[in-house]
Every structure is written in C-alpha cells, then in structure tokens.
Amino acid sequence: MKSESQPLSAEDKGLASTLRETLERAASRHDPMLDAALAATRAQALSETRRSRRAQGWWLAGGFAIAASVAVVVVLPSLKAPASSSVSVVHLATTPTVDPRMLEDMDFLLALGEDSNGG
C-alpha cells in the first residue's frame, strides 16, 4: 500500500475513479424494500434462535426429569429389600410352626419347676 504523501499513478487514479463510480451507482440504486426484507429476515432468524433455546431448555428439563425417575426406580428397590426381608423374618418369628409334643414337654417342665420351688 502506498503512503498518502506519494502522488497517485495513472493506474491508481483510474482504479479510484472506477471504485467511486461503482459505489455512487450502488448508493443511487438503494432499495428501501430490500432493507425491510433484510430486517424482517434478521428478526425471524433471531426469533427462531430464541424459540430453539426455549425448546432446548424444555428438552434439558425433560432429560433431568427422566434421569431422576430412573434414579428413583433404581435406588428405591435396593432400599426396600432389607426392610421387606426383615419383615418376612419377623413374620416368620411370630408365626412359627409348633409341634404339639414340644408344647406338652414345656408344660411338663413348667410343672416340675413349680413343684421344686414349693409352689
């Protein structure tokens, strides 16, 4: 690039004048409808970006909800397993199968204990 202190050559002057004419023609053909169409397109693109961000937010929230549901389904059965097994042990302890002969032997032992105590 040439510095401003040096004079322009004939080739540079021709290029500068061509550039100036081209820019003046483009400015004179300025179409306000084109500006309006470009502005509308830009606004639509921005609104779609906002909509897509909202949709991404909903998808993210839905993903977290599904992950929480899966975690609950996976964790809760493991927490309930010991409680249900202890309930079954308690249930078995309260209702054992009893042999009638054993009951007779216990009565006999109680009777012997009472006799030895003087009662």
Low-confidence stretches: none
- The share of residues in extended strands comes to under 5%
Structural class, by secondary structure, is: mainly alpha
Domain count: the total is 1
Secondary-structure element string: HHH
Largest sheet geometry: none
- Count of β-strands: 0
Compute the gyration radius: what is it?
47 Å
Give the N-to-C terminal Cα separation.
128 Å
Average pLDDT figure: 77
Shape: rod-shaped
Query: So how many helices?
Result: 3
Helical fraction equals over 70%
Protein described:
The protein has 119 residues and is mainly α. The chain has one domain (11-117). It contains 3 helices and no strands. The longest helix is centred in the middle third of the chain and has 63 residues, at 32-94. It starts with 9 loop residues before the first helix and ends with a helix. The mean pLDDT is 77.
